[in-house]
Design a protein that fits this description.
Elements lengths: L1 H23 L33 E4 L2 E5 L15 E5 L2 E4 L5 H14 L8 H5 L14 H6 L16 H22 L7 H4 L9 H6 L15 E3 L3 E2 L5 E2 L2 E3 L12 E2 L3 H9 L5 E2 L2 E2 L69 E7 L20 E3 L17 E3 L5 E3 L8 E3 L2 H4 L30 H5 L14 E4 L5 E4 L14 E5 L15 E5 L7 E2 L3 E3 L14
Parallel strand pairs: 12-21
Antiparallel strand pairs: 1-4, 2-3, 4-22, 5-8, 6-7, 9-22, 10-11, 12-19, 13-16, 14-15, 17-18, 19-20
InterPro entries: CTDL_fold, Glid_motil-assoc_lipo_GldJ, Sulfatase_Mod_Factor_Kinase, SUMF_dom, SUMF_sf
Protein name: Gliding motility protein GldJ
Pfam families: FGE-sulfatase (PF03781)
Length: 556
Amino acid sequence: MKVNKITVFRLVLSVIVTLGFASCSKKSSSKGTSRATGWNVDSKKVQAAKKQEAGPGLVFVEGGTFTMGKVQDDVMHDWNNTPTQQHVQSFYMDETEVTNFMYLEYLDWVKSVFSPDEYKGVYDGVVPDTLVWRNRLGYNETMTNNYLRHPAYANYPVVGVNWIQAVDFAKWRTDRVNEAILEKNGYLKKNAKTDDVNADNAFNTEAYLMSPSTARGGSSEIVLQKSKGRAVKSKDGSASEAKGVYAQRSSGIIMPEYRLPTEAEWEYAAAADVGQREYNTYKGQKKYPWSGEYTRSGKRQSKGDQLANFKQGNGDYGGIAGWSDDGADITNAVKSYAPNDFGLYDMAGNVAEWVADVYRPIIDNEMNDFNYFRGNLYTKNKIGADGKMEIVTKENMKYDTLSNGKIIARNFPGQIAQVPVDEKETYLRQNFDKSNNINYRDGDKQSSRFYNFGSSEADSEKEKDIEKMYNSPKHNVTTDSLGQMVRKYDRSSKRTTLIDDKIRVYKGGSWRDRAYWLDPAQRRYFPQDMATDYIGFRCAMSRVGPKADKKKTPRN
């Protein structure tokens, strides 16, 4: 009897323990099924999470928080880089500046696809301005004639490129990289990117994603479908073919776009404060992309050598013959100096670099301190009268005349025409209410001393030109039917600034600058449609997925 009681007690106890563990289990019971619906999704072969691979030429930069702005003395009294705390997401950045060789690839492709005889203005609009080397009191014709195309300068950073051209290069690079990826994965005909390309069927990433069947001129011989799944036998014994599919964003193989880095991204990557990190603290703020207060190397093997290419004094661009401190008098080949702690080369010196931002004297950290960027112009795909997306063709291409009279193509055949977002996208939104946000809180009427808080929106739109916060000169340069430039200059004496919506930030010192400008926090501005012999650029790409793949460590 006693044995039976003990057995029953043990049985009851085991049942209670089993139920307790079942009720306290923290694991999902939806293994092999959707966690949303409970449906069996194994048969659909849901795409497993893929790690983003670095695009050609890119280096991974893990994001984080940092002090954006100058922490040294502001001897120029610009007061345009007051320190603020900012955070940037992880991203990728070019290991070096874009070189002459890389840019010549772009020129060769444009010239072969868009014949200069048929597409006037397209090729001429992307060619760098080689005349930037000329100087009224200097002989620089050697660089004017040779710097861009001579193989001796192939690995030197490209210059003479304005901001607009740099943005167009990044768009072209996006399409060529994704075109090669799709070809490698069997979604495009092999070698079609070089053998079967013309102005009517040029590949564009966004056009492919939106309508693969009409991409590359709608050729099914070039745009291929890959079989998905297995052939299935029906009840009557006949076999159905595997379903053909195009690549999509969910395929995980198409790269995000190449673009210019934002000012915050560039400064964060250049400073590379992770080299002075211990746990979750930076041990001091760097003055240059390298550690230390000096521009010369302290290492035994290279002691005394300059760590960047910059102007060392009046009439001194590279030291004495036979013992040149920085090994260059103009620009130098990329990777001539040691990289910073992110593995990026020439983030100080050699050439200054364009970034994406429109210039304003103040970084508005009160409004935003995450992925800060000024210059958002939100657009959407243009829908034609037939209800379909409008693809750019030779007939509807748009051209712009720059302030110097140069004509450039606004878009290229094969791309999707864009229009500003309207009330359909902005109505009742709290995060944005219009397409153009360049002047938000710094340049719009509300931020001007002339703003009347009792006035209506209609009155604000009628504001006088001289009452604008940034009333820069309004020059008007057009081209007549004969191709001659018609220049109308603004000679008003009431202009008070050169800052406007077409002024872009450039960062970093160059071979023409003194050491003061090597500080990553320094910021200057230049018209987006003009070029110089000391401004180049490099591209960036956003990171998708987790912030980092590696586990955290006490030190970098």
